[in-house]
Design brief:
elongated; single chain; 5 helices; mainly alpha; about 110 residues
């Protein structure tokens, strides 16, 4: 792994730990999923809808996805030309007989040929 990959990985681990801790200390809002459909009558996107913790969580989530994408791009393996080469499908009769596995129900041995 090159230097850029190591630096991205270190930042990724730091963001992951911060994100877990930040989500763990957030207040549940006392309404949970029930507050979505018939809560206390608060506006969905009102002036006080996002606290500092919520905004920080949003920023850390964006950093999480950006760093994960960056790590995937940095660590991808290059395509090899031999992987892209066409495969020959011509098989001679001798090769197919030699590669054919012995069948378990057959009483004859393929070694006797």
């Amino acid at each position: 792994m090159n230097t850029v990959g190591i630096v991205l990985l270190v930042f990724f681990v730091i963001v992951c730990v911060l994100l877990v801790l930040l989500v763990a200390i957030q207040d549940d809002g006392e309404s949970g999923m029930g507050g979505l459909l018939g809560g206390r009558g608060t506006a969905a996107f009102g002036a006080h809808s996002a606290s500092v913790l919520t905004k920080t969580t949003f920023v850390l989530v964006i950093l999480f996805f950006a760093l994960a994408l960056g790590l995937a791009i940095v660590n991808k393996k290059p395509k090899l030309e031999k992987d892209l080469a066409p495969v020959s499908t011509e098989v001679t009769a001798e090769e197919s007989a030699a590669e054919a596995p012995a069948q378990w129900w057959s009483t004859e041995s393929t070694d006797a040929e």
